[in-house]
Amino acid sequence: MGISPVLWQFLVKWLHNAALFPSEASTISPWMDAFYLFLIAMTVVGLVLVGALVFGFAIRYRKERNPVATQVEGSTLLEATWTIIPLAIFLMAFVWGALLYYRIYTPPPNSMNIYVVGKQWMWKSEHPGGQHEINALHVPTGTPVQLTIISQDVFHSFSIPDFRVKREAIPGRYTTVWFEATQPGTYHLFCTQYCGTQHSGMIGEVTVLSPTDYQKWLQQSDSGMSLAQNGERLFASMGCNACHSGTAAARGPNLAGVYGSKLTLTDGSQVLVNDAYIRDAILNPSQHVTAGFAPIMPTYKGQISEEGLIDLVEFIKNLQTNYRVQQTQMTSDSDQAAQPTPTAGQSEAVKP
Amino acid sequence: MDNSFSAPHYDDTEPLIVHVPALEHHSTPQHRHHFETEEQQREAGSFGMWLFLLTEIMFFGGMFFAYLLYRNWYYPAFAAASNQLSVPLGAINTAILITSGFAMALGVYYAEIRDRKKLVFALVLTTVFGLAFLGVKYFEYKEKYELHHIPGDKFSVAMFVNPHAYELTKDEPPLAPDMAEKTQVFFFLYFAMTGMHALHMIIGLGLLVWLIARARRGDFSTGYVAPIENFGLYWHFVDIVWIFLFPLLYLINRHPLK
Amino acid sequence: MSAATIVTLPDQATATVPKKNYITSEHGLLSWLLTADHKRIAMLYMISITFFFFIGGAFAGLIRLELLTPQSDLVAADTYNKFFTMHGIVMVFLFLVPSVPATLGNFLIPIMIGAKDLAFPKINLLSWYLYMIGGTLTLSALVLGGVDTGWTFTTPLSTHYLNTHVITAALAIFIAGFSSIFTGLNFIVTLHRMRCPGMTWFRMPLFCWSNYAASLLMVLGTPVLAIAIVLVFLERVFGVGVFDPAKGGDPLLFQHLFWFYSHPAVYIMILPGMGVISEVISTFSRKRVFGYTAVAFSSVAIALFGFFVWEHHMFIMGVSNYSALVFSLLTMLVAVPSAIKIFNWAFTLQKGSITFETPMLYAFGFMGLFTIGGLTGVFLGVLGMDIHLTETYFIVAHFHFVMVGGMLMAFLSGVHFWWPKMTGRMYPESLSKLAAVVTFIGFILTFMPQFILGYLGMPRRYAAYPPEFQVLNVFSTAGATILGVGYMLPMLYLAWSLKYGAVAGNNPWQATGLEWQIQSPPLTENFVETPIMDHEAYDYEWLEKQQTEGAKYIG
Question: Coiled-coil segments, which residues (chain B) (predicted)?
Answer without folding.
Answer: none
